[in-house]
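Exercise 7. Predict the structure of Glutamate-ammonia-ligase adenylyltransferase from Escherichia coli.
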Amino acid sequence: MLRPFVFRRYIDFSVIQSLRNMKGMIAREVRRRGLTDNIKLGAGGIREIEFIVQVFQLIRGGREPSLQSRSLLPTLSAIAELHLLSENDAEQLRVAYLFLRRLENLLQSINDEQTQTLPSDELNRARLAWAMDFADWPQLTGALTAHMTNVRRVFNELIGDDESETQEESLSEQWRELWQDALQEDDTTPVLAHLSEDDRKQVLTLIADFRKSWISAPSGREDVRCSTI
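Solution. The predicted structure, encoded as tokens:
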């Protein structure tokens, strides 16, 4: 089910840049949270298919009533019929969406929990491969990779791939996010990945304490506010 929003008849082209910025935020969040095995939030996952469809709803939905459905698959069919995507791309997205949704349902049924993360143990991997009609785990992950690669390609072609940030910019962004976030102890922020679990917890605690003391100072409130802009 797609989230509803107001369909505008005319589009401000600054929206395109906003979508690029949103895409960058999604990509950074995926890296920050280590979501490479998450079939919903990871690159090429369910969320990106939903994002692709909603981009066309945002840009053309005000003029094309067929794009105003809250159901993804009918909207995707309308996108293809309007030649906004090639038939091949639309079909690849449709097949990938059905595959990922089926996989998600089976994932959640294994241990009866809300999850979109692939299992790491051999037993649940074997059970999932069998339920998805594959001979083994490598065959399943091979098919999954192919689907998610197709989704990511369309996603990048639609919004534009401007993620070619330098290593220094990437590191700076990770530290900025580390400073702004809630700093949970189980955070897997890549900038701290080289540390042991105990050292990582100590660093997170140190940053959290420093941030609290900084915010409590009169000049610190303004400095912290500016750092989040």
